[in-house]
Amino acid sequence: CQDHVAEPPSARSVSYLSILLGTTTLKDTATSSSSPQAVAETPPPKPTIYVNDPPDWYFSIYIRIDRSGFFHTYPHLGGPFKSLKEVEKAIESYLHDKRHKTLWNEQAGDEIIIRKALYWPDGRTRKCSDEHVVEFTREQMSLMLQALLDKYNEDRNLVGDLAYEFKDFLHYQTICEDYKWYKHFNFTTKTKDGIEDLFFAEVTKGADDALVANCFCKIESNENGHCYGCINHGITDMKHPNKADAYSGGHLNVYLPFGGCRRRPNTWTGSKEDV
Which segments of the protein form a coiled coil according to its record (predicted)? Predict the structure, then answer.
């Protein structure tokens, strides 16, 4: 434990991020997105971003790659960044600045073990109220949806007054079907002219820790597509597209594993879940 504490802040995050965003993946993403011929002949791709979970921390950092191959981080850590190395340095700096300045000074082994059980690296207590967990989850999910929305705008050439801006996070539910996880969301957007719209998103995990939006679309408030996954877990206000084939999860009449018990998402007192 003492050796681990003595590590430079985020020492493992660099190698983790390198694996997360391999050069082949980045090259393929930038090339396919920037090709005019590909855009003209095929429909817009599914919005895709990447998630980085810094080891030993309680939050995620989302990464979007634009058509030109530049990297954007959520939360905003500077940039856009020209290279993966710049992203790694920005994350290292961010974690270093957040780390508590005195809590992890050299201590006896038992003392360090106790402190690590009680506190996160920034000194925040690992035990918190349900209300705090809910608010933190909203913040994390909002960052993820903002990254996906920016990707959605870019893939459809929605810029300036036409671009959608993230406004409010409304509903969220995790669904498990045939050993695959889906997350359903409702959120609102606005444009420069003040028009507000309701969106639905279904997000699942892809290859290389990518987060892929199987469905990411504007819907009307009176749409009422059926979803067992949301209804069976009490999320009756979630609005789904009327077209059932627009989203993949929620069509089987099943509950979450372990008796349908919903665990607290992204809590600071349990294991983190990727989104």
Answer: none
3-state DSSP assignment of residue 9:
coil
| Residue linked to tokens 């627009």 | 246
Sign, CA torsion 147/150/152/154: negative
Instruction: Read off the tokens for 40.
Output: 């003209």
What tokens appear for 48 in the block? 């895709």
Global pTM reads: 0.77
Contact 202, 183 (CB under 8 A): yes
Write the CA distances from 73 to 65, 68, 79, 150, 201, integer angstroms. Answer: 9, 15, 8, 11, 20
Question: Is there a contact between 51 and 117 (Cβ–Cβ < 8 Å)?
Answer: no
Per-domain residue ranges of the chain: 2-260
pLDDT tens digits, residue range 203-254?
999 877 799 999 999 999 999 999 998 998 889 999 999 998 899 998 988 7
Cis peptide before 265 (omega within 30 of 0): no
Quickly list DSSP for 33-83. HH-HHHHHHSPPPPPEEEEE--TT-S--EEEEE-TTS-EEEES--S--BSS
Look at residues 147, 218, 163, 156 and name the one whose alpha carbon lies nearest to residue 186.
218
Q: Which two tokens stand for residue 256?
A: 């979450």
Any alpha helices (H) in the chain, and if so which ranges? 2-5, 11-20, 23-34, 36-41, 84-98, 109-118, 130-155, 228-231, 257-260
